[in-house]
Amino acid sequence: MASFGKQTAKVVFSGIQPTGVPQLGNYLGTIKNWVQLQQDPEAQRYYSIVDLHAMTVPRDPKRLKQETLEMAAALLACGIDTQKSVLFRQSTVPQHSQLNWVLGSITPVGWLNRMTQWKSKLQQQTNGILDGVNEHSLNVHSSAAQGLLTGLFTYPVLMASDILLFRASHIPVGEDQVQHLELARDLTVHFNKTFRTNLLVMPSYLLTATKRVMSLRDPLRKMSKSDANDQARITLADTDDQIRKKIKKAPTDSLSQITFDPKSRPGVSNLLSIYAAVRNIDPRVAAQEMQTLANAQMKEMVAQAVVDEITPIRKRLGELLDDPQYIEDELRKGEERARVVAEENWRQIAQCVGLPA
Ligand code: ATP
Ligand code: MG
């Protein structure tokens, strides 16, 4: 293994929460990219099912366990190859929590207070509780914040620990995670300065071309697993018929030609983006391809492309879910490999900060 401070290898790290079967946005925005990154024979890849992060929104323990299994099955079904990537559950590598404590102990509260994801949770909480509260007046001392859980506030520190524990250099994330990654970068500098070392490796992010797939009911909102309306998303478990129906009902507009213009034509442009992402082409090229089609014909083409992509994944997902022991075995193999690396890296970090190594 390369010694600290001299790393030249490309190390990819990324995590996904086990909060349900992935939707098309997770797949096109993140998972497809994870699969494509496997083509690089030089890189090491760590893909983590971040069950500790998922606990920041409390759920029934049985559900957490089941959804962790489903997420593992979905990742394998999408093409994560355990010969090429280390696939593991975050909680089975205890050094994540240990580094989380060390980093939390040097993170100023003010840094976390600036995080927009935290602020938006806080704002959701204040709606209906306090009138006239705006984002700028919200902070950890606001009365609205008092009911929020500490884990949600310190979430970005654990995320930084995930990345820095594996000395990761490349982090594929969606646009919504860029600010958290900036915090991980700030913590790298802060740790190295505080402990006069060059131990922690500076991570950089890899953004996918499909940063945001929008809802099929309201193209101004992002598609999400937790949307109350299941017509708003396509999941990797949807049947061909469900996929076709959902796309058929997606809002468009009455302009005569198909053009890509997300600002003035969000509905049409979202469908073009989906088609383009599936086919690995630019959405403008997709628009040219479909220029003269009527909306209904365009939707049929988009639906066919999505069906072609998802059908084999859904079938494989079903087979895998029939064999939970196989999934468990695959995860355990990955977890052993992850622990070997994490133990060695943690040993050096512990030594650096004065803990028993
Ligand atoms: P939840 O509603 O539970 O937050 P989610 O659908 O937002 O679920 P996450 O587990 O939070 O999913 O995100 C997993 C990954 O998918 C992240 O890298 C995130 O950036 C990406 N992602 C989520 N939604 C979209 C979307 N609509 N388009 C593109 N990428 C997305
Ligand atoms: Mg999310």
UniProtKB/TrEMBL annotation:
InterPro entries: aa-tRNA-synth_Ic, Rossmann-like_a/b/a_fold, Trp-tRNA-ligase, Trp-tRNA-ligase_bac-type, Trp-tRNA_synthetase. GO terms for molecular function: ATP binding; tryptophan-tRNA ligase activity. The keyword Nucleotide-binding applies. GO terms for biological process: mitochondrial tryptophanyl-tRNA aminoacylation. It comes from Coemansia asiatica. It is found in: Mitochondrion matrix. GO terms for cellular component: mitochondrial matrix. Keywords: Aminoacyl-tRNA synthetase, ATP-binding, Ligase, Nucleotide-binding, Protein biosynthesis. It catalyses: tRNA(Trp) + L-tryptophan + ATP = L-tryptophyl-tRNA(Trp) + AMP + diphosphate + H(+). This is Tryptophan--tRNA ligase, mitochondrial. CDD domains: TrpRS_core. Belongs to the class-I aminoacyl-tRNA synthetase family. Its EC number is 6.1.1.2.
